[in-house]
Design a protein that fits this description.
By secondary structure, the chain is α/β, with parallel strands linked by helices. The chain folds into two domains: 124 residues, Rossmann fold; 95 residues, Rossmann fold (3-Layer(aba) Sandwich). Helices cover 36% and strands 17% of the residues. The protein contains nine helices and ten strands. A five-stranded parallel sheet has the order 3-2-1-4-5, sandwiched between helices. Strands 6-9-10 form a three-stranded parallel sheet. The longest helix has 15 residues. The chain is elongated and about 60 Å long.
Length: 236
């Protein structure tokens, strides 16, 4: 049996029912008496708040909320993990709980072959959630676009790679013959696109050759707002 020393959570989608999941894995409804010895890494404030609400005694030790994205979190883990297990020649692996769509920046950074062997961290990934497109999305999206078409500016915020094709199609930006975003029609417009983070931004770039107007530096409503405000200030 593998003994993991780190649990890493980077999405609120999973943490919402974390306690029930832990009970299912262990086959018990008792508290985990040693879980406070395991560092839990969270990429942003929303996930951290959900983790803090888990009624675990002693409470979970959660780190990384300030990082805001996978690149910064990976750097933080490398330093923090080394200090947490300082003096141990063999360090336990990191359990990385992920969704179907994710970037590989964290496992790639932590297992980088160029790192000294005593700094590298083995990462074991487990997919714990997936996302899907609601059947009513195309209709609902079209209704919202019609209701807001006279506004001088409107923002579409994309929270997941799932459904990006439906979003672009609804905006008339998808070339059905190529599967890529149309190259014209974006100069004079009142609709702008923001993504919750780099995973969705990179998916739009890679899959559709589409560049969103804003990518939030922190995966939260506040992070999206800051990105939009910064863009507007640059174009005053």
């Amino acid at each position: 049996m593998v003994s993991w020393a780190i649990v890493q959570l980077t999405a609120l989608k999973y943490t919402g029912d974390k306690e029930a999941e832990l009970m299912e894995w262990t086959g018990t409804d008792k508290k985990w008496p040693h879980l406070q010895d395991v560092p839990v890494y969270s990429v942003g404030p929303a996930t951290t708040r959900a983790l803090k609400s888990v009624p675990q005694e002693p409470p979970l030790q959660i780190f990384g909320e300030h990082t805001g994205n996978g690149d910064a979190l990976a750097k933080f883990i490398l330093e923090h993990y080394g200090q947490w297990y300082k003096g141990r020649s063999t360090k336990p692996p990191l359990l990385f709980l992920v969704g179907e769509q994710r970037r590989d920046i964290i496992p790639r950074s932590l297992m980088d072959a160029e790192l000294p062997s005593d700094q590298r961290i083995q990462v074991d990934e487990i997919v714990v959630y997936g996302t899907g497109v609601m059947e009513s999305f195309s209709h609902d999206f079209a209704e919202i676009l019609r209701a807001t078409e006279d506004r001088p500016a409107r923002w579409v915020v994309v929270f997941s790679p799932t459904g990006c094709d439906s979003m672009l199609r609804g905006l008339g930006l998808l070339d059905e013959s190529t599967g890529k975003a149309k190259r014209d029609g974006r100069e004079e417009r009142n609709t702008f696109i923001a993504t919750i983070g780099p995973t969705t931004r990179d998916y739009l770039r890679r899959t559709f050759d589409f560049e969103p107007d804003v990518c939030a530096e922190e995966p939260s409503p506040e992070g999206v707002k800051r990105g939009i405000v910064q863009l507007l200030e640059r174009h005053r």
